[in-house]
Amino acid sequence: MRPDDRPTDELRPITITHHFTNKTPGSILIRAGETMVLCTASISDKLPPWMNPEELRGWVTAEYSMMPGSTSPRKSRDRNGKIDGRSTEIQRLVGRSLRAVVDLELLGQRLITLDCDVLQADGGTRTLSITGSMIALLDALETLPEFAGKKPGDEGFPVKDYAAAVSVGLVEGEPRLDLCYIEDSAAEVDMNVVMTAGGRFIEIQGTGEEATFDENQLAELLKLARKGIGELVELEK
Amino acid sequence: MRPDDRPTDELRPITITHHFTNKTPGSILIRAGETMVLCTASISDKLPPWMNPEELRGWVTAEYSMMPGSTSPRKSRDRNGKIDGRSTEIQRLVGRSLRAVVDLELLGQRLITLDCDVLQADGGTRTLSITGSMIALLDALETLPEFAGKKPGDEGFPVKDYAAAVSVGLVEGEPRLDLCYIEDSAAEVDMNVVMTAGGRFIEIQGTGEEATFDENQLAELLKLARKGIGELVELEK
Amino acid sequence: MRPDDRPTDELRPITITHHFTNKTPGSILIRAGETMVLCTASISDKLPPWMNPEELRGWVTAEYSMMPGSTSPRKSRDRNGKIDGRSTEIQRLVGRSLRAVVDLELLGQRLITLDCDVLQADGGTRTLSITGSMIALLDALETLPEFAGKKPGDEGFPVKDYAAAVSVGLVEGEPRLDLCYIEDSAAEVDMNVVMTAGGRFIEIQGTGEEATFDENQLAELLKLARKGIGELVELEK
Amino acid sequence: MRPDDRPTDELRPITITHHFTNKTPGSILIRAGETMVLCTASISDKLPPWMNPEELRGWVTAEYSMMPGSTSPRKSRDRNGKIDGRSTEIQRLVGRSLRAVVDLELLGQRLITLDCDVLQADGGTRTLSITGSMIALLDALETLPEFAGKKPGDEGFPVKDYAAAVSVGLVEGEPRLDLCYIEDSAAEVDMNVVMTAGGRFIEIQGTGEEATFDENQLAELLKLARKGIGELVELEK
Amino acid sequence: MRPDDRPTDELRPITITHHFTNKTPGSILIRAGETMVLCTASISDKLPPWMNPEELRGWVTAEYSMMPGSTSPRKSRDRNGKIDGRSTEIQRLVGRSLRAVVDLELLGQRLITLDCDVLQADGGTRTLSITGSMIALLDALETLPEFAGKKPGDEGFPVKDYAAAVSVGLVEGEPRLDLCYIEDSAAEVDMNVVMTAGGRFIEIQGTGEEATFDENQLAELLKLARKGIGELVELEK
Amino acid sequence: MRPDDRPTDELRPITITHHFTNKTPGSILIRAGETMVLCTASISDKLPPWMNPEELRGWVTAEYSMMPGSTSPRKSRDRNGKIDGRSTEIQRLVGRSLRAVVDLELLGQRLITLDCDVLQADGGTRTLSITGSMIALLDALETLPEFAGKKPGDEGFPVKDYAAAVSVGLVEGEPRLDLCYIEDSAAEVDMNVVMTAGGRFIEIQGTGEEATFDENQLAELLKLARKGIGELVELEK
Lengths: 237, 237, 237, 237, 237, 237
What we know:
The structure is a homohexamer of 237-residue chains. By secondary structure, chain A is an alpha+beta fold. The first copy, chain A, has a single domain, classed as GHMP Kinase, N-terminal domain (Ribosomal Protein S5, domain 2, 2-Layer Sandwich), CATH 3.30.230.70. Helices cover 27% and strands 29% of the residues of chain A. The first copy, chain A, is globular and about 55 Å long. Chain C binds chain E through residues 20-24, 27, 34, 36, 38, 40, 42, 44, 63, 65, 67-74, 77-83, 113, 115, 117, 119-121, and chain E through 20-24, 27, 34, 36, 38, 40, 42, 44, 63, 65, 67-74, 77-83, 113, 115, 117, 119-121. Strand 9 (201-208) of chain E pairs antiparallel with strand 9 of chain F.
């Protein structure tokens, strides 16, 4: 039995609050079970310094942070100038995942920054950050007159397809969908999968935690992930 | 007229959500008009390294940060190892204000950390952080068996009195209570006042912003502050 | 009795050395009792990067630091990239206090930096830094041909009025002027006041140190501060 | 055709120099084509501070860095206190991969640090770092009397199995093994695979670079990786 | 002719103020011409963390910094966590030079920190820091009962001999003693020499500034240095 | 007897590998006994920000670092934003030494960066870095068409003369050439000398390590250094 009595192929309950705050064009408070992330999308005309200003395209980037009160015991702030390695990894993953479904030329010369701040952590913060950021990005684009009323796949719209992410894992040898913290800590294999609505992979990160896995287990995990992502994409729509 | 049509001596509407998150014993989402702060209170047995472990007392400290999406344009994170001076000032003020009403011996050998994270900023974030932290601190103490069911002033309870804070200011020569951002930016004089329920001052910080003020103006501002704090303390109770 | 036998309303003896060093146009070594601060004023044509170069105005800023040998035990240098919170607070106060009496348009496109380095600390370093910086600023302006021979209040002179600062406090319930270190450590209430020669407030910062204070005590403290500042302004002139 | 005329399923030529330097018990200079990494393994009795000293186990960690002259143009050193995100990701991957085949209890209370310094970069530095570190780790263990003469899988030997890593990718729609830099830059999909000699997965990281991929492509890439890793493990042995 | 009309073998006028500040047992304000350095010597029982607490010896260390107002234009403070390379070099030289004449066992388990803060810079700040620190160190030892009344060379006194330092250089081909800033900037060869009262070398650092020098020039420079240091040691005594 | 049985005036065996890596125009792996340094020379058109772009000259700079595996026990990386003082000193010395023989105008508007990374440390790393950098610099210039085929001293060639460096020292009172680590640790006097092929001094740094030395000893040490540098310059040629 899972800690919260879910079947092995069931997502935790998801709730999504649009425009939770109002200073940024996108602001999504997303919950999956006890995990809670605030994803805000800011739009700026100021492109990153490494971009060639003559290229007629934009950029999408992300930052991730866990708030001090999101865990017990309290997590110290990253204030000594070093972001911890895990946060760095996650924010790179979020940005890369969104860029896989964005046409940067169609976006125009704009920087969109997704800030994913974890208010409460109970497993799956990185995948929930991707899913929440996808929605925040769409809300933000909706505020731009040239994109208002359009949706992914529409001609001229910079988002080519929906993307969503979910974690899967082997816990006590059993493949499970959407691990909560207790399961995540005990998992032999932990895998994060990002896919499009069209069922194509954007990213697969599978890790044996002091363990290894074989091809059949990989196939089962990917099947669970596909199911979960299908449901998430429906929610996004 | 004020931007939001309030009378000069009226607070913005306040809403308080207890236990907004559940990983810390105190977690208050407090709003005053458009300003919104999450105040979490964490309890730890690990005292700060500068404290003498043989002293039988505790400590109360605070950290303050504005989230990237709390303002427009987006505010960069403090990730280069330097907290901006304003945040340093504010978090020192929050900690000092709470300690003025806490009996650190009665608290016992515990560290309570108040994390004040501004989700949305529209003026008065530092005073709202103090008021929200006061409530989060009380909620956190309620979870400790030895203090459960007690309230400020009760014998043996480490909080001696309620404390609350409010901003006042001179805008176009007019004394006003609880400035919103537009007023704050235009104020000739900006003053933050922290008081106890019993009407005693904990802190007064009055600043002429490229201007100065006289004793009569000071008296009028303090009178407004006293009125506002009285109302806030009623809310806390 | 006070540690140095002064009456409660008496300043410590002040000595001011002009042009203590000669590489900056203003250089004041100021002593109040055992406290000793070197305030140098540098003038530069290079404005801070956040200023709009098209605005035809200047800026006045300050930096504050305690030298390692200024206290016993020795104070470590701020060399790890983090200025301690107290120094940040003080240097912001010094800059803000001076800007309250400076007309930045009349100053022209110049940056004036006041460096306040405490050579010996015995209480009141922040207020003495303000008073010393005021004098260093005037000495520095005197070296500019367009301002030579003018004084605060003169037409076209960028300093509108003299400013000075002093600390007051409640020690064993008694209001006292210009606290030395022993008094400062023992004070129930500590207040720093910055005023103009004309008797108007620039800044009031009153703090109950694990204590609170009422309106009568506030009035008594402000009366003492007014007396002390009157005497300091005479010295400046 | 590939830039170096290799068949799509062929590894670049590998050369391995044991004991390239002599101050550490393991020191491997490993080359794959033009990529060249120095992997040193140091043994220390001083465990990381976060480990509970009462646990009777060891730890294996890794650090990764590209030397300034390893690329053209020159790569700046990480000297401002921030390791770039990519290096952080890679060194975490190297450490995790090795720990998947190490029995930390059998290792005993020792810290083994693998330092992977890229002398020359031409694609595949992270996977070559894993393979080189595996060999350096074995050389280092050989110097410990209790493990001398043993090999992975032997009873009481802390390394349970050989591990090796390789990159695969889709370039112009074609699955290829062991990408060089030109191919890596042009790849639609980039995948790093770490496996044991026994053919089990330790880690899969597949990323669509502004592109996506389907299940058939995933299967083809994994097949290529399996072939390459089989050959690498033979070299290690 | 030299900028200040001195003969080539003449020191600038030296003035030494003992106990310029009173929070540290040694505090020397030393001037050579326009160069002015405050050298304070602090004594602590807390030895550096790298020292073995079972060794029955002490340590002498130094820190060097140029104050912001010591030069024109103003020198920025080292507040970003990186001390500039020149300051690092100088403070290492000062500490090493003093340790060459100190018997660390006789000093006992004490840390003496010499803080050299340049108030005004006109060439020769590093050598003046050494000479000033020597005197501050002797003043500090005088305050310890076990060493009071003793002088360098006395039995049981931890300072074995006086040390002093001076700069020499080739300017327009001419060997000169004790360069001021204008000469230092123009010098083809710049040499700093530290010697004992007994005429033995502690340190020689000679540098061709985009130039080179031969053995005869070296001999002439060392002769000048010997003369200058002889005079400095007389002053110290 | 010396630890490796050399006569007191003999260099350790030197081996030089040109083009050890191929991403930079100069890349020298240089060994002296057990000490091993990789010196790469990179050429860039981007001059340092402090240079006036209107000056028609270039710059030569150096960076020095010891790799973690170069010593036993392992040396931690400089990743906290502070380069250790010794590395700073050394890299400044390497850059300064090369610039003494380079005509920066003839070099043209180019930045040449010498990266000296110590792979294995056994004494004399700083002097070997200078000698290796000299050769890497010449190899790098050889790749520029305008300088190909020329050598130091040729008209129009930016390197005016060969430079090389060696350490000498007093060990048990005996002057010795080219100290290895054991000797270096035990030396009473440690001296690093940089000279041109023409026999002129570029830099002398002689330090008494808790000891002092007289003029005769200085003369003997310089004589040994001259012999060693003569042999090194022959190798360079």
